[in-house]
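Lay summary. Proteins are chains of building blocks that fold into shapes, and those shapes determine what they do. In this project we predict the shape from the chain. Here is one chain we studied, written as its sequence of building blocks.
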Amino acid sequence: MTEPSGSPETDIRARRGALALSQAAPAGAPPYRILSIDGGGLRGLIPLMIIQRLDEAKPNWRDGINMYAGTSTGGLIALGLAKGKTPRELMDVYVTQGKTIFARSLWHAIANIGDLVGPKYDDANRKAVFQQVLAGDLLKDYLSADATRGHVCITAFDLKDAKDANLPRRNWKSKIFHNIPVAIGTNDADELAYEVAMRTSAAPTYFASFESFVDGGVFANNPAMCAFAQALDGRLAKKIQPTSIRMLSLGTGYTATYFETDRSWGLSQWALHLVDLLTDGVLGVADFQAQQLLGTDHYARLTVELGHNIAMDDPGTIGELQTLGANATIDDALTLINAW
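And here is the predicted shape, written in a compact code that computers can read:
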């Protein structure tokens, strides 16, 4: 097996010779289509612009999507699209409300001694915007009449192991919020969508944890493999054939980052880079895994190189981010959705 490349994004061109999952699905097994969207704050404008371009090139292609998966800003986009909002409507939220979400008051900065003893931003504005976008929807409200579409898969990280609160031993752990009907156990269909969005986007150092959850980007900023695994969960009411899965994975851009020499840093020096390491550093791993499992006929990954470091919280880059999405090469994505 070849190794994933050193780039944050592995080669998005096809890898022939993927596992047998790339072969045709058994007769009678309809395609199960997944749209997966990375985290990245305001950089979510890039996949939104790409989705809008795909809508223009192939109208109604999203009507066949079974699952919307997302992490952080990708989680908000996934929930918005599952609700029925258009990419343009969601882009307008980023353009008009980006400054509101990432706004800092002088009092907040003083109270937190800069950013040393508290998050960079207050949660109130983010919560108000998410409530505006997702209203009072529950995750189950997104399911189609036959419950085969409108599935969502949203990553977050549980800091207190709330589900096992009565056990003698508790441990923080990853959490996948989903509404896919189950035959065994429970799902998260009764969760409020805006609260799930708050949990998945509670990026450490940027925002406080929300209901003891933080950003899913700490373990899966690219949620492609989380979505794949959730679709194959043996507890689901209706089994999904692995060979029926098709996936389009959209990134929020990456910066070609490297250190020329070894780093003998301590906590204070590494702290400046930890969020980037947690989010950007693992993107290519999920891409490599998905390529190997699904093959080129059933999987495509589309992202862009940013050219320079673009912060996830800088409203001054909104125009640049839209341009990056507008200029992205979408040929591989079109090939996939034309056939899926």
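What the prediction tells us: The first helix runs from residue 45 to 57.
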